[in-house]
Design goal:
The complex is a heterodimer of chains A (223) and B (365). By secondary structure, chain A is an all-alpha fold. Chain A contains ten helices and no strands. In chain A, helix 2 packs across helix 5, helix 3 runs parallel beside helix 8 and helix 6 runs antiparallel to helix 7. Chain B has two domains: 225 residues, Rossmann fold; 124 residues, Beta Barrel (OB fold (Dihydrolipoamide Acetyltransferase, E2P)). In chain B, helix 3 crosses helix 4 and helix 4 runs parallel beside helix 5. Classes of the chains: A mainly alpha (223), B alpha+beta (365).
Amino acid sequence: MFDDLGPLWLSLKVATAATVGVAVVGVPAALVLARSRFPGKGLAAGILALPLVLPPTVVGYLLLQAIGRRAWLGRWLEEALGVVLVFHGSGAVLASAVAAFPLFLLPARGAFEAVDPRLEDAARLLGRGEASVFLAVTLPLAWRGLAAGLVLAFARALGDFGATMMVAGNIPSLTQTASLAIYDAVQSGDSRRAATLALGVSAISVAALAFVQRTLPGREVRP
Amino acid sequence: MTTLDARVVRRVHPGLTIDATIRLGDEIGVLFGPSGAGKSTLLRLIAGLARPDDGRVELAGETLFDAARRVDVPLRRRRIGMIFQDDLLFPHLDVAGNVGFGLKGAGRPERARRVEEVAALCGVSALLGRGIATLSGGERQRVGLARALAPRPRLLLCDEPVSALDLPGRRRLLDRLRGVQQAEGIPILYVTHSPAEAVTLGTRLFLLEAGRVVAEGPPADVLARAGGRASLLHLEGIRNAFAGTVAEHEPGGEWTRVALDGGPSLFVAPVDLPAGARVDVEVAGDEVMLAVGPIAGLSARNQVEGVVEAVAVHGREAEVVVRAGATLWLASTLASTPAAMGLSVGLPVTMILKARSVRVEPAAT
């Protein structure tokens, strides 16, 4: 039975890597959207939220247009860095990260917007620089929203099907994540394998949800 | 000696341009004016929380802002302390964490020492381990004051810090501020729209109207000169507030005597508190009668000797500021009364109070 768990393990690795990527790009993006004013901000916010409303296959298709081996970005990546994303595990990470990104960005932006900027000013007046203000005031006051967003993004990345399939394909033990493997198992009539994987993915997702519910309502902090 | 020398110009909106010069030594300056005059904005411009369109801000000889020379020292290096109307304490830190927030650069022993020092100065030593959510409004403001003072600012700005507090809370914070000014020896600029605070707190008053300083000088003088503009001074009913201790009860239960801190004793209606109990004492300005010299054969129990500190006439009313020991009193009269009585600064007077017009309550902690 445990040899069945390969795709599940791959899914966990892909979703974890995607979540890290989402956090690295998403925290600064959410902060900028919450705190800065610049021309085209609405457009930028719209584009970043687009994966939420586009069909996952369309997200995958657009990614292919950018990073495929014949696309400009994909060719540059291959020639300059020797990196090929398509039909590779890193492609699965990228695809699920892009699909999951808005699920982090929206609550994270809201969490940063809920932090009273006057508290940040008070911290600056008390001698703190920007990095220190962020670490000592903004982050601690916003972390519940950020954590919720990360869990949502993780769950979304874990379950991604369409975008991953388009970008990384469905290559067993290389890019075949649990979602893809469940599809394959059902197609080939292997119902035991399908059920095992479905149970595994569901267990992880439910655990993530439980984490959110345990963490978030907890001790309320007065804003 | 001038410590703060600031001229700031800022077009806030088409109806309001702030163009004000504030020069202040190591004293308490009060920025006073009607709502909408731009008091808080002026404070923010001096602090650096908002950027002036033009002008120059110098503090203790250092240029913090100069539009002509493109100087704009970042907030974190200005060493300006500020307390706010809604305290703006950090809700995720406890009281000690808030008070010590500005001492990040200091070593641990120095930090602990300074936190204890300012906590004692601001009366929050007993609160250091508490969470912010458990504090009363007055406690929050005192914690905010301690937090602002900890990193030894060169200027303390106060943006209507007592407006959310009850009267005893107000009095306690204002007393603290006077103590702070003496202990730290820094200029304090205090924004208020309350004439009672303006007259009793500061030594220098800036009267702000529509973004401009229209009068400046000793508070009572400025208010007296501003007298014609009655609309300016919407008196909210001036009340005197003091702290005191229950001294004794009349055996027949007729009266209680309360000793005010640093000031006179008052006979008040019987209070159901043991001798030694701390109390908050309030007297409305309207209930304080003035006489030049003591009077015999009077039904009122209290005759308190004092000296006229200031007379402020505004519209049809006047406030006479009387010092009795360490306590400052405001007596409200009609506008013509001070002149008719020949009241002038330095003149000894007697304040007459009925025992029943003194309100006594157990001291809030």
